[in-house]
Design goal:
alpha/beta, 5-stranded mixed sheet, 6 helices, about 20% strand, elongated
């Protein structure tokens, strides 16, 4: 993971990466969010869309409304329901009357291990967008691309007029995405990466980090990186059985200690995918090759 750029960061300020797109950075930096969540405003005149309104922070909501100005918000669109992405949708909708659309609410199976502390359990969209469905406004078209993996309900949004893709947390400009079971699924994540690799988007606008100017090159590298991690796991299991925690110090040299839990979850996601494919098995918490 790359470190954040030097301060000051443009928190609360309006940036314009291209004519149809404005960006406002939320004040929620962390080891998981980089400099914070980037909220995007798409459109220029009568009506706009707000993508990933971010955390429920009054200063950030005010900054979004200042950036929107006199335009109507036609849609508040969420890529997924992590708590750094969707909670501001409710107060923003209450202040503007705009509908909340985009990803589906997340339904977690209560019989599975709990991993929902980071999820916005109060997210309630007015409309769930199906794969390939479009939200259309004056001069802009945002089409939903189903990209499960980081979360089961993750969407990207393609801006058809400019060739930009808003990638949420599926592809970020500073780090690979964390895949946390049971909702996060490494097999689905890899398929979603392959789906994006087959597209010809001009640029990615992630929720965290800089724009991605060479999307297919980055996605190819991300697929290769995950395959390398998978091969590392298989090599280490070839030497001896391991718990998921055993892999972390051997696979993640120099890791920020605050990210140890995330690394262990990522390893677990790989192990579960390998188990489904019949390559590894487990006895309790201990994994081994088959």
């Amino acid at each position: 993971m790359a470190g954040p750029p030097p301060k000051p960061w443009p928190t609360g300020l309006v940036e314009r990466p291209e004519p149809l797109v404005r960006r406002v950075l939320a004040p929620n930096p962390s080891p998981y969010t980089y400099t914070g969540t980037q909220t995007y405003i798409v459109g220029e005149s009568d009506a706009v869309a707000v993508i990933d309104p971010g955390p429920d922070d009054p200063a950030h909501i005010d900054a979004i409304l200042d950036a929107v100005g006199e335009a109507k918000i036609a849609a508040i669109m969420c890529t997924h329901t992590h708590r750094d992405h969707s909670p501001a949708a409710r107060p923003l909708a209450a202040r503007t009357g705009a509908p909340i659309v985009g990803c589906a609410p997340l339904v977690l199976d209560d019989s599975e291990p709990r991993a929902d502390a980071s999820f916005d359990r109060d997210y309630a969209p007015d409309r769930v967008m199906e794969d390939g469905e479009a939200m259309i406004g004056p001069g802009w078209t945002l089409r939903a691309i189903h990209t499960p993996g980081h979360t089961s309900n993750h969407l990207c949004f393609a801006l058809e007029e400019s060739g930009a893709l808003f990638t949420g947390d599926h592809v970020m400009g500073w780090s690979t995405s964390v895949v946390v079971p049971p909702d996060g699924d490494m097999g689905a994540y890899m398929k979603s990466l392959e789906r994006l690799y087959e597209r010809d988007d001009r640029v990615y606008y992630p929720a965290h980090g800089a724009p991605v100017e060479k999307p297919r090159q980055l996605v190819r590298g991300m697929i290769g990186h995950r395959r390398q991690r998978e091969n590392q796991i298989l090599r280490l299991l070839g030497d001896a059985p391991h718990t998921a925690a055993d892999f972390v110090p051997r696979m993640y040299k120099g890791l920020d200690p605050r990210l140890t839990g995330a690394a262990e979850m990522s390893v677990t996601a790989h192990l579960l995918d390998l188990e489904r494919r019949g390559l590894v098995g487990r006895s309790g918490d201990v994994w081994q090759t088959l």
